[in-house]
Specification:
single chain, 68 residues, mainly alpha, 434 Repressor (Amino-terminal Domain)
Length: 68
Amino acid sequence: MAIVVNLDVVMAKRKISLTELSQKVDLTLANLSILKTGKAKAVRFSTLESLCKALDCQPGELLEYVPD
């Protein structure tokens, strides 16, 4: 996959758990886990915005393009 999700890296830098982030962005643990492991097929802009707000980051810190 050419788009890599770096949610786990950003979470580690911010020292925030999946459970805590789930509560802050009002997403289920299952949905966050799918996103964190890179298995998500799509991400809503509203979800991306919530994650950026909760983690105090830019979208480019969460998503990265890596050519195949």
